[in-house]
Amino acid sequence: MTERTRESGAAIDVLQLHKYFGDNEVLQGIDFHVGNGQVVCVIGPSGSGKSTLLRCVNLLETPTSGKIFIEDTEITDPDVDVDAVRSRIGMVFQQFNLFPHMTVLKNLTVAQQKVKGRGKDEAVECARRNLAKVGLAEREDAYPAHLSGGQQQRIAIARALSMDPDMMLFDEPTSALDPELVGDVLGVMKDLASEGMTMMVVTHEMGFAREVGDKLVFMDGGVIVEEGDPVAVLGDPQHERTQSFLSKVL
Amino acid sequence: MAMSPRKRARVSRAVQYVVLAVLVVAVALVADWKTLGSTFLDPDLAREQFPDIISVALKNTILYTIGAFVFGLALGLVLALMRLSSVGPYRWLATTFIEFFRGVPALIVFIGFYFGLPIAFPGRQIPGGTFGVVVIALGLVGAAYMAETIRAGIQAVPKGQMEAARSLGMSHSRAMVTIIVPQAFRIILPPLTNELILLTKDSSLVYVVGLTFADYELTKFGREGLNDNANLTPLFLAALCYLLITVPLSIVVRRMEARSERAR
Ligand SMILES: Nc1ncnc2c1ncn2[C@@H]1O[C@H](COP(=O)(O)OP(=O)(O)O)[C@@H](O)[C@H]1O
Ligand SMILES: [Mg+2]
Fold first, then answer.
1. What is the dihedral of CA B209, B211, B217, B221, to 10 degrees?
2. A8 Cβ below 6 A of ligand 1
3. What does pLDDT average to over chain A?
4. How is B59-71 classified by DSSP, letter by letter?
5. Does B160 reach chain A within 8 Å, measured CB to CB?
6. What is the 3-state secondary structure (H, E, C) of A72-138?
7. Which residues form the ABC transporter domain (chain A) (predicted)?
8. Which residue numbers in chain A have pLDDT < 50?
9. What value does the mean pLDDT of chain B take?
10. Confidence of residue B123 (pLDDT cuts 50, 70, 90)
11. A26 lines ligand 1 (CB under 6 A)
């Protein structure tokens, strides 16, 4: 086995990552790389370990072994300041996870103030800028329960952006949405990509992966089966498992 | 012959009405209404109870209850967080406390506090006099119950909330304070209000500690009135005062429960 080394200019670098839940080896030696400003999409059947990989990258799950670098920080180092690492990485969940007891504006300012130590005015200004970016400037006083799923997810993206992250992680951001609301969220993500945001996106939206992605990764059974240029992987998959998965979803 | 279900229901309802009517008639015949009336609600004696029953007794009941509730809530929150802690000894300590105060009669806690503490710590006093004793003794018991309620509330907050807060860079404790606990309290508002009702009634246990008139709460007030007049009027009025507090609170609880039922 050849020991992989770090690539330069990497935003996210995952080396020989293993993750067990009890006896269940969910990630079986993942090598994974996201370059600065790249959009990498991860696809694969349910239970293949996509979420676990994504969650390891901001330490919501603790890797069993292997190394993960975020830019130049080795976050698998036990002495690393987990909170500081996380504040540099925006995360968007399938279930939005907005704070239901806070207004939209408060959702966007609370971490800026309590984590980044920003003053109220600065936090509000930053929040408004990001609300405008996701097209929801006029909803700052609403509570999450009064917004559609698509609006909630765009707010969740704006909340993550308000921390000025170096990169964004998305875990099936449109899977919980009614089909007619998916487009708005994907639109916001496309805009982000075109601004040069580094993104790692677990998704079932093959159109998005083809159009926006710089790289497509296919996972199955806790390993990366195939990866490469999205158009190539989707159009001419090399591996039999990739072919059978794509024939089901396309 | 078999009856249809509807017919059977009608017969059963008729039987229930008949039983009720017989009971009412029996009570009406047996009771001596005049004596009963003057024993429970003698108008002159009733008038004599005012304003003290309000300005002393009801006021003290409310003060004791609120004091104990606030103290119990604060301690209950600490205990709940200790029970959820990853540090073993914190969990054990909290569990021991909760099991002890939930398992022992509140009356024993009162007696222990009022009579036991001065013996155990001679020369020391609980600050705040009677108020202090009641608030602490009643608060300890309330805290044990509220801790379990709060813990259940914290665990009922969806896991994604903590993950979202952590992924924004909040520490675990910061996320608890700003994100999780406020949501937990919304969830447990109805059971907490029930706890307030229970505390209101339990504040009557203070009668075991020797009280001066200014410290009387409703039960003590009614009981002294009973002794002095050989008449139930003061006690009956005291009971009505409790209802004045507890019935509106139960209505509030039922409203809140109905609302969260609808929100589901
Ligand atoms: N917290 C957990 N505890 C135990 N098993 C888990 C946990 N999270 C995920 N798993 C298991 O890990 C495997 C991969 O899950 P996941 O990463 O969520 O897959 P995907 O996102 O690709 O659907 C599944 O078999 C799942 O049951
Ligand atoms: Mg998943």
1. 110
2. no
3. 94
4. HHHHHHHHHHHHH
5. yes
6. CEECCCCCCCHHHHHCCEEEECCCCCCCCCCCHHHHHHHHHHHCCCCCHHHHHHHHHHHHHHCCCHH
7. 12-246
8. 1-4
9. 89
10. confident
11. yes
A177: phi then psi, degrees, rounded to nearest 5 = -100, 150
**Residue A15, helix vs strand vs coil:** strand
Give residues with Cβ within 8 angstroms of B125, minimum separation 6.
B118
Residues 6+ apart with CB under 8 A from A61: A19, A52, A55
pLDDT of residue A159: 98
pLDDT in the model for residue A154: 97
A44 CA from centroid of ligand 2 (Å) = 9
Which of B168, B187, B259 best probes binding to A when mutated, by most A CB atoms within 10 angstroms?
Answer: B168
Class of residue B27 by CB neighbours under 10 A (exposed 0-12, middle 13-18, buried 19+): exposed
Q: Give the domain B42-263 fold.
A: MetI-like fold (1.10.3720)
Order of all β-strands in the sheet with A89-92: A89-92, A167-171, A198-202, A39-43, A215-220, A223-228
Instruction: Using pLDDT thresholds of 50, 70 and 90, give the confidence band for residue B119.
Output: confident
User: What is the pTM (predicted TM-score) of this model?
Assistant: 0.86
Q: Do B168 and A159 touch (CB under 8 A)?
A: yes
Residue A18 · residue A66 · CB < 8 Å: yes
- CA of A61, closest atom in ligand 1: 1
Q: What is the mean pLDDT of residues B216-230?
A: 88
| Site of tokens 């009517």 | B21
Tell me what pLDDT residue B176 has: 95
pLDDT above 90: residue B44: no
Instruction: List pLDDT tens digits, range A207-224.
Output: 999 999 999 999 999 999
Tokens of A246: 């794509």
Nearest to B249 by CA among B204, B203, B205, B198: B198
- Tokens representing residue B240 in the block: 């009505």
